[in-house]
Amino acid sequence: MIVAICTLAAIAVGAGVWAYVTRDQTEPLKAMNTCNEGIFSSRMEPLERLLSPDSSYKPAWSRVAVGSSFKISCNNSTSSGAVNLVAEMRDGSRDDWFAKLHAPSKVSRFDAGTEAVVWGREAAIYVECRSHTEASSYTAGMAHPYLAVSSRASGSAGQEEKTRHQDLARLANGMLFEAEMETGCQGTFATPPSDQPRVHD
Fold it and tell me: Which region holds residue 80: left if phi is over 0, alpha if psi is between -120 and 50, else beta?
């Protein structure tokens, strides 16, 4: 039986800032016991294939949102591996985003956001946001706001190559949906992501 060792608790750490922390408690592994039920609803298979959760499985969710700062992260770990998801509002160009990835020259791509790439054990999505006057308060003071979303496997996670890129793309796409709902990045209603974003060369 696969179990998760956590529940989520929310604590206010400052005006407009919320941090989510974990507490030990054994629960069956299912969407409501992962970092965020919305991200993983109907998407448990990619996480299970990448991570092979066991009795040491533990998720940790954090959210920082104040002023023009926005960052959410979701770390899913076992004693031997981890899958980490991050979404963050940044200011800069597409080239700035890509340079920060430290990706190889040859990557595969998938259909999400403005641009999305996957290589090795990492997937990343770039989404251009509308200006502050057109959309979210999180873009205030930013000349070129964008959302940077990533999913990354480490340790023993994601060693199976056959479905790894597809699974990482699918989880990153779910994290993007959560970030777009919270930030209003593109100034339009966020639609649920495709369960299978198409990965191609």
Answer: alpha
Q: Is the whole model's pTM more than 0.90, yes or no?
A: no
Q: Which residues of 129-156 are buried (b: 16+ CB within 10 A; e: fewer)?
A: beeeeebbebbeebeebbbbbbbbbeee
Residue the block writes with tokens 């999305």 = 116
The predicted structure's pLDDT at residue 20: 36
Residue whose C-alpha is closest to residue 181's, from 173, 191, 172: 191
d(CA 115, CA 117): 7
Residues in the chain, total: 201
Q: How far from 64 is each of 85, 123, 151, CA to CA, in Å?
A: 14, 22, 18
The string of pLDDT tens digits covering residues 147-163 is: 999 999 999 888 877 78
CA distance 108 to 119: 6
Is a pLDDT exceeding 80 seen at residue 46?
yes
* Per-residue burial over 66-92, b = 16 or more CB atoms within 10 Å of its CB, e = otherwise: eebebbbbbbbbbeebbbbbbbbbbee
